[in-house]
Structures are given as C-alpha cells and as structure tokens.
Amino acid sequence: MNCLLLRHGIAVNPEEWDRSEGERPLTKEGIAKTEQVAAGLKRIGMKPTHLLCSPLIRTQQTAEITKKTLQIKATIQLCPELVYDQSPMRLFPILQGYPQDAVIMCVGHEPHLGQTAALMILGKNSSGFAVKKAGGCLISFEGKVEIGRGYLEWWMAPAQLRALR
C-alpha cells in the first residue's frame, strides 16, 4: 500500500477569521498554489485509489482540487481521525481496512501528519517531522500497514511539488 500524506494549502489567518476554526477556508493564494502542487503530483504519476480527508473546510477544498486535477474516481471520504487534535494512532486501523494495492491520499493538518509519518516510518513520535502547507510525503508499506513498517518514498515541500516537470 502507498499512503500519500498531503497537508492542506494556505488558509486564512486564524487572527483574521471570526467564525469557527472548522470553517476557515483556503486563501486565493492557497487555492492557486494547491492547484500547482496537484499538477506536480499528476506529473509524477500519482494516482490515488482512495481519498481520505479531515472534515475541516480547508482540507476539503484541498482534497477537491487534487481530486479534480488527478482525476481521482473515488469519492472524498471525510475522516475525523485526520483532524489536527486527534491521535495519529487512530488512523492505522482505518488504513488497515484497505486493500494492499491501494494508494490512499490522506489530506490533513500539522502536527498530525508529521506525527503520523514518524509513527509510520520510525515507529515512534518524533518532533523532527513536519509537512509544510500543500506539501506532502509518500510512504509505502509491504504487506499490512503497521507502526514502524513504512518506507519513505519521498518527502517534498510545496515549492518542490510545484516545480516538478
């Protein structure tokens, strides 16, 4: 199984937002840069078979952009386990329910995604892992998805993903 962890794009600054955190959207710049990141993912042949997404608006917008650009046939599945305040441990049983040949894109937040990646690769928490806004990483598993059994295929900042040709 391959698991693409993708952080949402640039969102409206929390200090400038007077509604609920869950409704905070991407900015115009965030939308444009996310479209460019999605184009980069397409150029390197990313073809997710499943799309999991935090239920917050900014992640749903990011998921919609990548779904359209990558022509993902799967529906966006809202996954509360991808919200920033959830334990990354809660995501593993969900991933284990997918076929071994699946390519699952998980659109979420920091620090959750960095902690998830550390658990997947190292088998323990590590503060040195962080996914930048609209950045991502691809982690592969041979066999069952288990803590510490993932292999890092690549980790890219958004500028790197946008520059892919």
Q: Topology, pairings included?
A:
Elements: E1 2-7, H1 28-43, E2 50-53, H2 57-70, E3 76-78, H3 91-96, E4 103-108, H4 112-121, E5 136-141, E6 150-156, H5 158-163
Parallel strand pairs: 1-4, 2-3, 2-4
Antiparallel strand pairs: 1-5, 5-6
Helix pairs in contact: 1-2
- Percent of sequence in beta strands: 15-25%
Radius of gyration: 15 Å
Separation of termini? Answer: 25 Å
Average residue-wise pLDDT = 97
Notable traits:
165 residues; 19% strand; 6-stranded mixed beta sheet; alpha/beta; 5 helices
Description:
With 165 residues, this protein is α/β, with parallel strands linked by helices. The chain has five helices and six strands. The chain has helices at 28-43, 57-70, 91-96, 112-121, 158-163, and strands spanning 2-7, 50-53, 76-78, 103-108, 136-141, 150-156. It has a six-stranded mixed sheet with strand order 3-2-4-1-5-6, with helices on both faces. Strand 2, helix 2 (57-70) and strand 3 (76-78) form a beta-alpha-beta unit. Helix 1 packs parallel to helix 2. The mean pLDDT is 97.
